[in-house]
Amino acid sequence: MAFQTRVQRVGIQRAPPTRPALRELAVSAGVRRRLLLSAAFSTLGLLCTALAFVQIAGAIAASLLGGSLPAPDTLALIAALLAGRALGRTGREWTGQALAAQEVRVWRGRLTSRALALGPVALSGRRGADLAALDAELSPHLTPYYARYLPGALHAALAFVVVLAFTFRLDPATAGLLLLTGPLTVGFLALVGLATGTATERQWVAHTRLSARLLTVTRHLPTLHAFGAVAAYREVLAQSAARQRATTLGVLKVAFLSGFVMDFAATLATALVAVWTGVRLFGGEAALAPTLAALMLVPEFFGPLRQLGADRHAALDAEPLAGRLCDLMAAPVAPSGTAQVGPSVPHLQLVSARAELTRPTAALTLDLPPGTHAALRGPSGSGKTTLLHALRKHVPYAGTVQVDGTPLDALEAAGWQARVAFVPQYPRLIAASVTENLKLWNPDATEAEVRRAAQAVGLAEVLDALSAGWNTPLGEGGVQLSGGETARLALARALLSGACLILLDEVTAHLDAGSEAEVLAAVGSAFADRTVVLATHRRAPAEWLDVALQPAHAGAAA
């Protein structure tokens, strides 16, 4: 029951309102260029439509009132204008599809580049399912927004201006009615959008939560079977699927309702204009040709607004995704410069350096000459681990960190990270042989180098005793080794990498006192000529520099 309660809480937190983020999708120069082209096609189509309707209305009026058929040149002009109308519509559709294809490709590239720039450390607080869903939903969510909504909104604005201008010239009374009913229709569109936005956000959260849980159950199915928790998680998945289905149906209901409201408003406004036009014609207060042309233009006025109401759902569907994209793009990346440091073990100096977290963390002022072994002690939440990540340029930091007198931010990231090895509390081992795991950071290492590294940390005899020796497959997570042996293997791997700065994050926290002493002794001998920084809750070895972090509030004040 406890397991079921715990897994039911697994999910995606609701994101804050993201309307400003949606606008970020349309600010790039590439989008503006495509939209300008779409506006040109829209203007061409609208002008040809208006002129064609004027010619058609004149021909109808001449036929009804004068009994004369339109001249061939008039028919040719009408045909040419209708061809221009078709060209404008086709060009607008083509431009929208090209814009969507371009921007989906751009955002996928930006998402990939940002994820690579942030790295696994900065992304560790985000669910893998979130990123997977974000990438998978780029095309289905952004394509309607770029292909239909943005060009449609621009076309509706141009239609409002062009049609209203022609109608005012042809029949000011009809133009006055359009000027009255048009904003009311837009108001209905805005009101419906408020309800749709809330429903769409709920649907996105439910969809992403279901994706995350499916990924989790697929990844950990053997563990769930081992602990007999499959039935509990099956119920959780069923509830998530039901919630996602209900929210999706809710979005569809709102979509159908909004479509009905828009159609009703546009139809009512068109009928009002038509009745008013008929009354004035029968009363002899208006001329047939201009009034008929104005009446023919009325659907061209409301048609884009009705279509915009339908396409508005494409924008609202893209809104949650836009918020998460912008949130990811706004995540801070550790600065990288072009400076390099010498090949020797560097001299590190930290002045009021602290982890760049949302909560206050302890600041650290420390001088680390080459070859120093320091134990960084502090309570949980003081920022020890994040500060180690900052020293490897995985996350930004506050304060000052210098490497041989050069600011850490000015160093080239890839070059510096090759000089620094980070060993976590639970090292990641792959389902491969011992040798392949040891050579993970240095694939070109020779067998002799691999053996020397294992001997330096006291692991060679253990590996020799395995069933298949150094070719023994460890299995996912290194099930063939104990905790202390896994820690030694990770240290050998760091030694083999040639790094001059070794960062150890609670590598002995899960070990008993005897195993901890053996591992720390191996660190002291194997890395005697290199700088080592160990984040720990326990007392440091006697020969190590013991550095105690101040309480978090004191660090924040500093």
Could you please describe the fold and organization of this structure?
By secondary structure, this protein is an alpha/beta fold. The protein is built from 18 helices and nine strands. Helix 6 (138-170) runs antiparallel to helix 10 (288-330), helix 7 packs parallel to helix 10 (288-330) and helix 14 crosses helix 16. It has helices spanning 2-8, 19-24, 29-66, 72-122, 128-136, 138-170, 172-219, 221-226, 230-282, 288-330, 384-391, 413-417, 434-438, 447-456, 460-464, 483-496, 513-526, 552-557, and strands at 348-355, 364-368, 373-377, 397-403, 406-407, 420-423, 501-505, 531-536, 545-548. The strands form two sheets. The chain has a five-stranded parallel beta sheet, sandwiched between helices. The model is unreliable at 1-19 and 554-558 (pLDDT under 50).
